[in-house]
Amino acid sequence: MRFVVDVMLGKLARWLRLLGYDTIYDQSYNDEALLKLSKSENRILITRDVELFKRASKEGISSLLIHSTDLMGALSEISPLIKDSFIDSIGTRCTICNTPLVETDRSKIPSEEIPNISPLWSCPRCGKVYWHGSHWKGIEERIKNIKTNIQDIKR
Ligand SMILES: [Zn+2]
Q1: What's the 122 CA to ligand 1 centre distance in angstroms?
Q2: Is pTM beyond 0.85 here?
Q3: 100 C-alpha vs ligand 1 centroid, how far in Å?
């Protein structure tokens, strides 16, 4: 399951990547580019723009219109789509550039600012380093909410 997300939903795009979904998000893409991309790469278009959603539907492109203005609301609107593929791929993709992460060794990372925590992951494309630090608790809380949501749908 792959996505392309419109410019209004940047936070949601980062979260889809965090959950492991291949998600294209680029602020320079206009409606035409988004439609073309979802068609050619068979990606589900996620948008908050009613007009864009209507256009996509007319052109036979799978799309989802988001109504919520907050992240958790938007994620619960996506839950029906991801309910069957919500696997443990959490944290496997770079939230900045959408590239799959590789596990890495502290000795291979030059920066002194990275805490002495393992495991560490790094992005082969943009170089960002990831670890499950104190911020991860908040992320896990949200993931738990999404899981509960999905279980409710499946019931
Ligand atoms: Zn990256």
Answers
A1: 8
A2: yes
A3: 8
How far is residue 37 from each of residues 2, 18, 22, 25, 148, measured CA to CA in Å? 11, 21, 13, 11, 32
Distance of CA 60 from the midpoint of ligand 1 (Å): 32
Given a cut of 90, whether residue 24 has pLDDT beyond it is yes
- Domains contained in the chain, number: 1
Cα dihedral across residues 73, 76, 81, 87: positive or negative: positive
Distance from Cα 72 to the centre of ligand 1, integer Å? 24
Name the residue range of residue 57's domain.
2-154
